[in-house]
Amino acid sequence: GVHNIPEGFCVALPIFYATNSRMKGFLYALVSGLSEPLGALLGYAVIKGSGQDLSQLVYGILFGIVGGMMIMIVIMELLPTAYKYDPEDRVTSRSAALGMAVMASSLCLFAA
Questions:
Q1: In this structure, are residues 103 and 3 in contact, taking their beta carbons and an 8 Å threshold?
Q2: Any idea of the CA torsion for 59, 77, 9, 97, to the nearest 10 degrees?
Q3: Are 6 and 102 in contact (CB under 8 A)?
Q4: N-to-C CA span, the chain
């Protein structure tokens, strides 16, 4: 989805600045990006290999746990780091709001 673009930048840029190698930044971002579909295929294989589909309750629990983990990473790690580099909050809050608006818009526009 749309979130993969900034995710790729978040992986590639620190590697590039640490090593001054565009190729290393690209390769690390590529490997990071490939892990998601591979994990999805592994999860699909586990679910289908068990011979039965998971119940709606289990899906709800799993999505809730994963969503909570993602929110905690944002609250505990990403936003504090952003404010560390933007102590006067010139762009961080507006960028966070813009990101939320882009995701909300994409959910509305691409809802099936």
A1: yes
A2: 80
A3: no
A4: 15
Interaxial angle between packed helices 4-19 and 22-49, expressed in degrees from 0 to 180 and rounded to the nearest 10: 140
7: CB partners within 8 A, 6+ apart:
32, 33
* pLDDT of amino acid 48: 75
* Contact (Cβ atoms closer than 8 angstroms) between residue 96 and residue 79: yes
Rounded CA gap, 74 and 67, in Å? 11
In this structure, the number of other CB atoms found within 10 A of the CB of residue 47 comes to 14
pLDDT per position as a tens digit, 22-50: 999 999 999 998 888 898 898 788 777 76
Tokens of 2: 């749309």
Average pLDDT over residues 66-75: 92
For residue 20 the two structure tokens come to 């001054």
